[in-house]
Amino acid sequence: MTFDYGSLRSVLHPSRTEPVPLPPDPRRSFLHATPCPRCKGSGRVGGYSGDPDEWEDNAWTCSDCRATGNGPGSRPSPDPSPAHLSAITTAPSAPEAEAHAWDLAFRLTPWGLPIPDRLIWRVPTSPVNAFEPSLEGVPRSITSQVSDLLLNQWDLADPTIDLATPYGAKPQPYIDIHYQARLHSAWEAAAASARPSPLPGLSFADLANPYTPLLKIWRTGFALDALTPTTLTLYAAPNNS
Questions:
Q1: Is 137 helix (H, G, I), strand (E, B) or coil?
Q2: Torsion sign (Cα): 183, 184, 186, 190
Q3: Would you call 235 helix, strand, or coil by DSSP?
């Protein structure tokens, strides 16, 4: 398949219209965040803390909350907050982002991952740092199985993909979006030549490319924030317009 990788350079802000209600879905809820006690909701713990001679671990990024600023008291609810409504219902692409997220979960079932039973929207009060949101994407347990074959042993990635940014520059939707795009293109090349996959008896042509819906989510202006056996979490940047 052909894919416009250049479109992934856009920032995480979908096109806006007047609010449009989301189609009913009992699996959908909205994260009502409480500040992480370690970083006080900032997503950062950098610099010197407490003893001025002791550098704090994981400086600049709070590992307790994955740099999201959400504390353990954060709870999902079926009722959206005004921030959720402003960020999500004004974007006609929100239902499309949800559909791609469920498609991604379905494509991971051959790898032994169950389909989650709920989808949660997360909207921060403001982006907590230059690398918001923290990357999840396709689970690392799967990426680690395929990346060595696709990128190292076979070197199948499209050499024309160029999404990398200089170190320290504000990135595209995710820090390693360039890596995810290369894996997508390499998977397509492996499928076209029916190369064997890490799953016994199956080639890459037998398996749906999970990076396709991941990249499509980014093109809606939203992002996959996390994927667990029970939960899909979608990220929406706050609507500050």
A1: coil
A2: positive
A3: strand
* Tokens (6 digits) for 158: 């499209």
Residue 239 CA to its chain's centroid (Å): 18
CA–CA gap between residue 164 and residue 179 (Å, rounded): 8
- Whether the ω angle into residue 37 lies within 30 degrees of 0, i.e. cis, is no
For 164-213, the pLDDT digits (tens) are 877 656 666 676 788 899 999 999 999 999 999 999 999 999 999 999 99
Q: Which helix (H) or strand (E) holds 223?
A: strand 223-227
Up-side HSE of residue 229: CA atoms within 13 Å toward CB?
A: 5
Backbone phi and psi for residue 121, each to the nearest 5 degrees, phi listed first: -95, 135
Q: Are 117 and 230 in contact (CB under 8 A)?
A: yes
Read off the pTM: 0.87
